Amino acid sequence: MIKKVTADEIPLLVEISQSTFYHTYQAFNTEQDMQLYLNKHMNEAAIRNEWNSPNNEFYFAWLNENLAGYCKLSYHTQPDSLHFSNGLEIARLYVNEPFKKLGIGKQFIAFAKNLAQQQNLEQLWLIAWQQNKSAITFYQKMGFEIVGEQQFILGNDVQNDWVLRKWLNAK
Fold first, then answer.
1. Residues 135, 128: contact at Cβ < 8 Å?
2. Please, how many CA atoms are within 13 Å of residue 59, restricted to the half-sphere of its CB?
3. What does the pLDDT look like over 83-93, one tens digit per residue?
4. Would the CA dihedral through 144, 73, 162, 80 be positive or negative?
């Protein structure tokens, strides 16, 4: 079940944000870069600030009363190098390891698509690290296409990300 994150759940949101990000990327990055990023961008004040923004919405996925994952949806955003309009960004989508391959990611994509269509938005878009082959393959299977690239700074390391887009209506 997908449920909007409440103010009282922000500490849990911080916990899952940090743990899923760390487990996803720690094998590919230095501990120093990981800690720099987590301490700056995924501390409670930063997450609370994001949660308070009217342009962001956070959702938890629950499976049998267990927190399976979360996503952050952002309105009125666009990639650094491309000019998108009328779209919804899937700014974060993470699933806890024991719940991967159970369809949670697909549920989040379908949920985001439904929200976007209810608001007459034309596209979903997201950014994925070029080295995260499994995520890129998943997004492509879900109908996203690589349309550009941009940089992401993790700690002191400049990395390259793909920008992916999915049109919601035939173009």
1. yes
2. 21
3. 777 899 999 99
4. positive
Question: Exposed, middle or buried by CB within 10 Å (0-12, 13-18, 19+), for 24?
Answer: middle
User: Could you give the CA distance from residue 61 to residue 67 in angstroms, rounded to a whole number?
Assistant: 6
Taking the model in full, what pTM does it have?
Answer: 0.93
**Rounded to an integer, what distance in angstroms lies between the CA atom of residue 87 and that of residue 85?**
6
Tokens 């487990």 correspond to 23
Residue 27 pLDDT > 80, yes or no? yes
**Tens-place pLDDT, residues 68-111:** 999 999 998 888 777 777 899 999 999 999 999 999 999 999 99
Pairing of strands 56-63, 2-4: antiparallel
The CA angle 104-72-22, to the nearest 5 degrees, is 75
> Which residue is it, tokens 């949101």?
13
Q: How far is the C-alpha of 127 from the C-alpha of 152, rounded, in Å?
A: 9
Specify the residue for token string 């390259």.
160
56-83 exposure pattern, b = at least 16 Cβ within 10 A, e = fewer: bbbbbbebeeebbbbbbbbbeeebeeee
